[in-house]
Structures
1.
Amino acid sequence: MIRIWPHQRVGDMAMLAAVFGFLGAKIFNSLENWSEFVRNPIESLISFSGLTFYGGLICAALAIWYYAKKKGIGFWHLNDAAAPALMLAYALGRIGCQVSGDGDWGIVNSAYHTGENQKIVLNKGNQFMMTIAHNNIFYINQFGTQDIPHKTVIAPDWLPNWLFAYPYPHNVINEGIPIPNCAEQYCSYLPLPVFPTPLYETLICLILFGIIWGFRKRFKVPGTLFGFYLILNGIERFFIEKIRVNAKYSIFGFHPTQAEIISFLLVLAGAGIWFFLTRQAARQQIPANK
């Protein structure tokens, strides 16, 4: 008889995560941008742009859970092993969003506008409204109104402006207005710079990864480390949504985004998992490190 250890199943689980993660990311993105999906469903589904992280996370997790159960792999131990890697992978994945300019950015920072050579320039007087008026067609097509979501934040003197306002030149979705004298494939930039939220998430999630990794051995009950990850992940994404551009739902007078709803549920799920498993361990009097 050949004995196969759980770590030898990593390749299979990685393939399942890749396939179902991509499918889930596309499905959730289609639900979040329903009008675009209805207009061109085939292109929406086969395009490698337009991926929703939580959709990929949920569908990949369900696929791996089914596989682990079928192969007799401890579910909570598997989740705990994946928790630090999930946070690190999310942080690294956001680097791709930042450098490519895939549209996964924040709302406009109305303290600045984009000047010549895509340099960030501090607004004076009514420059913000003048820039909107000058690029009226672009903003009407994007938001359906000139009343675009924005916040005004001026960078401290000791920090670079691009940490607070970035125009995403040469972005891969060709969002914005044409770059003068550019003959490349991607020749657009944002006339009003936005908050670079992918960069923020990379920095925040690297810190959260360090916290999870540093405290991992203090979690004695299987599954509680994963619950801790869900709580941190949900809190981080819920608050970053406050300065991100996303479609909103209307639910009983509230207008949350899809990510806000899911992140709120993740926090509840993480707290519930922690409470349930610790109570269960206390009742069963499970010895430490078992």
2.
Amino acid sequence: MDPNRFSGKVALVTGAGRGIGAAIAERLSAEGARVAVMDLDEAAVAAQVKLLNERDPSAGAVGLVADVRDRAAVDRELRRLEDAAGPCQVVVNNAGRWTVKPFLESTPELWADELAVNFSGVLHVVHRALPAMVDAGYGRIVNVISDSARVGEPNVTLYAAAKAAVAGFSRALAKEVGRSGVTVNCVSLSTTRTPGAFATFDESQIERMVRFYPAGRLGEPEDAAAAVAYLASDDAAWVTGQTLGVNGGYAMS
């Protein structure tokens, strides 16, 4: 870990109040970024910002409270960030959620909400942050997706569809903005030991899943954070339009 890897850079992480997003925020902060923690849970944002700033009094972490489905809220909070720290050089779209339900039991209202959280939220954040990156001739966008979008998983069809849309968007955008010095990549995850996973599956179910992973274990949030840090760094300057699987071998390509 390089404490100066992101020195002088502002990094926005959505869904950073807990779980994978919190681990990403902690990793980028530990490597020198000034991190903006965005989440719709105000208490979680405050706790995470406090943690980052207590670990390093010079971290300058900033809390942003917004639901990524709400473009006006995203605009408002990014203006606050720009006033406090300047524009983002790194954007990590991690916010998301899933509903476990057979497709035939779902409703158009649920379709719209799942797509809004997992896909439209990415569009809102990128559309707002990207112009400053293009103007500066530098930017790193990392979108967190799921192996459910790559290999298919029953009962999370809406989530899989939205994450597949993010992957396609990322590849297309990478071609649009590559000559502007902006890279766009995805990190694709399988089951990771987070509060969301434990809210969906019980401990025995999670332990049974291990047999599907050649690495012999499920993911930890820090696994995702390490991959995001690589793609957000200058070490990945010649990597764009790619999806990096971080999944213990669950899906291979």
3.
Amino acid sequence: MSSVHAVPVPTPDGFIPAVVHLPTRIPAPVVVCCHGLLSYKGSSKFAAIGEEYCRAGSVVVRFDFSGCGESKVIQRESLLFSRLRDLRSVVDYVRNQSWSSGAIGLLGSSLGGYLSLLYAAESCHPIQAVVCWATPFDLSRIKGALTQSEELKQIVPPDFQLGNPVNLMDLAPVPRVLIIHGQQDQTVSWNDAVAIYRRVGEPKRLILMETADHRLLDPHWREMAMKLSLEWFLEQGLCSDTI
């Protein structure tokens, strides 16, 4: 029987909270979920992903980036530096667990997808597959929001900087990437998805959802995104299809 565990993941500054979904059979491949700028590990879509993908035979790890959800860790230097450091800490933690088979995939939403691509490009340990939902190619809008958004001011220190890179123009050709984007996304244009698709390496796949918004709030589109993402992970050897 699968099980769900709350765990503290060590970082250079302390710990960030995470939730681990363990399937019946371990060790198993792992899918690490990376939430967006103002989201958190307990969002409905990531909770559903944890349950469904665990049933498919994968370990699923959800975590809060510094300053989000239950995380009290102070963000350092810049937004991108802090969050990329968090992701490194989580993946390092996963690699050292007995329940991990060593095959790791990343599923990122919005800024979480951006960070997933950066990590996959820099890591000396290959990432098995990456899935990006509603992911920006350029962070210009976020850069402006850091000084204007009242909601952002609640999770980032005063005068906090975005950091680099501010776009994916120089991204290495990360292989095995699935890109899903709604064509009614008012936050990140679906043209960003096309730009990412042109940059990443083979094998790759681009799915544009005609009436989906940024958060995939429509149950039909969200269910389809979850299904297509699971199929991608299955193709890349990250789950054993037991549904």
